[in-house]
């Protein structure tokens, strides 16, 4: 704070806006939904530790034919149906420790108002006009397919028959944005990631963009067009706009300008085209800036296949959390596959990783070091500590995590933190504090244990975005106040900040070993 500008911070926190897709309410939250949401959560927790002002948005996508049909089949209204399922998502995210700022539902009045305002702008700008649509539609995708994409009349993603539709609709003039989008992606190479996805998007645009139908008269469950109330807005047009609704579009300009454009839209590769072609074109048509980065990750496969309701191969987070705990669940999916390519989930693989990384490496190290501190250092942080060899490892752990998370490479980032754990275990073997103690060298014993305790403090700090509960507990056992998530980076990662004389606590194993269930 400066003397002249009382009340105005010298360095206002940087706004950081991250979104997940909004999930369809025809499905209950499964492992695939949780994957994107946990990644967003880890990123947001990490940025908060750097003092960023974070807005983390998730929510539910509630309109469209798919939801209307699900509701009909259950004999309830679409809104009743959406109410039931939206709660399941809220509960799942709470259970998984997700720290979202907002949860948007597209059936909310705030979203109706924002979408109608935006539609009117796009219409007035001349990018929406009336026409007739004739062609194939996939209800699960809520998307049209051109004849050449729909081999044998089947959806390329869902592998099921498409429906033939003919409707008088309003069309969004996507074709007008072919060149502007190519120019934009040329000038902003970071805008779609990873690189392979960017190439895919550019390739798609270069094939030529066709105008798409953005309204329906055949269904009623949606947002009416403000200039023609016989039509409801096409569900994707409405859904994508959630990202602007939530941060005050049309209601609070200062708030909107603060957050928009989003720093990251995290999505699965299945919805890349909507986010990297339709969405930026819509924003251009409405005179709004484009998101800084659309990051499309791969799928979590089960037995080589994408989970889906129809294939009945969905795994619900709750079932695994009962066994692995929330931290065990979160850690597995962030560490097990790169955030980009597809990865195959296996229960046996999850048991193996849990036992190796969490029970053996993380948990045993904490247990071992605290145990020795109890026995050899009277249960308090030792007074004298050398800036021992682990300092370099700790700095490398922090630097590695920081540079990897800047690329959303969660797996590599946490593996550098686990390298610090492994180095600390090796250091213990090498220096054998039990032998030092036995030989009566109290100073050397205290130095080695002091180094290990400090390494553990940094491990707790760096691992906290992914395993927040265990990291907080370890932090507490180390005699630290607050939680690791409340610390300020990069300062808190500097070596040598344990408070000498603070009482330590051994506690129970943080990650008890698991045996695979045989059934
Ligand atoms: N409602 C649209 C998104 C609108 S965003 C404006 C939608 N919803 S969805 O419920 O089908 O969820 C899509 C997202 O869930 C995917 O893009 C992905 O982020 C996540 N996943 C769903 N299944 C998945 C896997 N099997 N693996 C990884 N992520 C997957 O599409």
Can you walk through the features of this model?
The protein is an alpha/beta fold and 519 residues long. The protein folds into 2 domains: 15-297, 3-Layer(aba) Sandwich (Rossmann fold), CATH 3.40.50; 347-493, Isoleucyl-tRNA Synthetase, Domain 1, CATH 1.10.730.10. It contains 17 helices and 16 strands. The strands form 4 sheets. A 6-stranded parallel β-sheet has the order 3-2-1-12-13-7, sandwiched between helices. A 4-stranded antiparallel β-sheet has the order 5-4-6-8. Strands 9-11-10 form a 3-stranded antiparallel β-sheet. Strand 4 and strand 5 (143-145) form a beta hairpin. Helix 2 (65-74) crosses helix 3, helix 12 (347-376) runs antiparallel to helix 16 and helix 14 (410-431) runs antiparallel to helix 16 (442-463). The longest helix is centred in the C-terminal third of the chain and has 30 residues, at 347-376. The protein starts with 14 loop residues before the first strand and ends in a 42-residue tail after the last helix. The structure holds 5'-O-[(L-methionyl)-sulphamoyl]adenosine. 5'-O-[(L-methionyl)-sulphamoyl]adenosine is lined by residues 21-24, 27, 32-33, 35-36, 61, 239-240, 242, 267-268, 270-271, 299-300, 306-307.
Present the secondary structure layout.
Blueprint: E1 15-24, H1 31-49, E2 53-61, H2 65-74, H3 78-95, E3 102-105, H4 109-124, E4 128-138, E5 143-145, E6 163-172, H5 178-187, E7 192-193, H6 195-206, E8 212-213, E9 215-216, E10 224-225, E11 228-233, H7 235-240, H8 242-245, H9 253-259, E12 264-268, H10 272-285, E13 294-297, E14 300-302, E15 305-306, H11 317-336, E16 343-345, H12 347-376, H13 390-405, H14 410-431, H15 433-438, H16 442-463, H17 468-477
Parallel strand pairs: 1-2, 1-12, 2-3, 7-13, 12-13, 14-16
Antiparallel strand pairs: 4-5, 4-6, 6-8, 9-11, 10-11, 14-15
Helix pairs in contact: 1-11, 2-3, 5-6, 6-10, 11-12, 12-14, 12-16, 13-14, 13-16, 14-16, 16-17
């Amino acid at each position: 704070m400066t003397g002249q500008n009382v009340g105005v911070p010298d360095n206002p926190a940087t706004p950081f806006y991250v979104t997940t897709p909004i999930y369809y309410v025809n499905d209950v939250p499964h492992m695939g939904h949780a994957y994107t949401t946990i990644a967003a959560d880890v990123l947001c927790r990490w940025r908060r530790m750097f003092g960023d002002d974070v807005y983390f948005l998730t929510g539910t996508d509630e309109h469209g034919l798919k939801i209307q049909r699900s509701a009909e089949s259950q004999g309830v209204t679409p809104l009743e149906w959406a109410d039931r399922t939206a709660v399941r998502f809220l509960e799942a995210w709470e259970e998984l420790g997700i720290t979202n700022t907002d949860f948007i539902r597209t059936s909310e009045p705030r979203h109706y108002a924002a979408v109608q305002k935006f539609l009117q702008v796009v219409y007035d700008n001349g990018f929406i006009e009336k026409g007739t649509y004739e062609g194939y539609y996939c209800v699960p995708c809520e998307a049209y397919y051109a004849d050449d994409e729909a081999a044998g009349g089947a959806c390329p993603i869902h592998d099921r028959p498409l429906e033939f539709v003919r409707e008088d609709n309003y069309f969004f003039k996507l074709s007008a944005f072919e060149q502007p989008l190519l120019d934009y992606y040329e000038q902003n190479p970071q805008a779609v990631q990873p690189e392979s996805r960017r190439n895919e998007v550019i390739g798609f645009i270069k094939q030529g963009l066709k105008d798409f139908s953005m309204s329906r008269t055949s269904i009623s469950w949606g947002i009416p067009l403000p200039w023609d109330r016989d039509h409801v807005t096409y569900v994707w047009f409405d859904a994508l706009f959630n990202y602007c609704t939530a941060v005050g579009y049309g209601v609070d300009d200062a708030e909107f300008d603060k957050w928009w454009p989003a720093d990251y839209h995290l999505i699965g590769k299945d919805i890349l085209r909507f986010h990297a072609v339709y969405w930026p074109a819509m924003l251009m048509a409405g005179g709004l800036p484009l998101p800084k980065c659309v990051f499309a990750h791969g799928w979590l496969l089960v037995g080589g296949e994408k989970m889906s309701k129809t294939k009945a191969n969905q795994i619900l987070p709750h079932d695994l959390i009962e066994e692995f705990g929330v931290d065990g669940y979160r850690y597995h999916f962030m560490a097990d596959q790169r955030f980009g390519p597809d990865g195959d989930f296996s229960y046996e693989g999850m048991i193996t990783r849990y036992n190796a990384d969490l029970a053996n490496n993380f948990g045993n190290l904490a247990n071992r070091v605290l145990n020795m501190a109890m026995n050899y250092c009277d249960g308090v942080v030792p007074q004298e500590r050398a800036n021992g060899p682990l300092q370099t490892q700790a700095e490398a752990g922090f630097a590695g995590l920081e540079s990897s998370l800047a690329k959303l490479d969660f797996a590599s980032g946490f593996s550098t933190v686990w390298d610090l754990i492994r180095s600390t275990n090796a250091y213990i073997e090498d220096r054998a504090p039990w032998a030092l103690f036995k030989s009566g060298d109290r100073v050397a014993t205290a130095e080695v244990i002091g180094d290990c305790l400090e390494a553990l403090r940094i491990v707790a700090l760096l691992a906290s975005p992914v395993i927040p509960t265990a990291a907080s507990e370890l932090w507490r056992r180390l005699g630290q106040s607050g939680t690791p998530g409340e610390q300020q980076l990069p300062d808190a990662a500097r070596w040598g900040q344990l408070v000498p004389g603070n009482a330590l606590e051994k506690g129970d194993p943080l990650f008890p070993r698991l045996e695979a269930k045989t059934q």
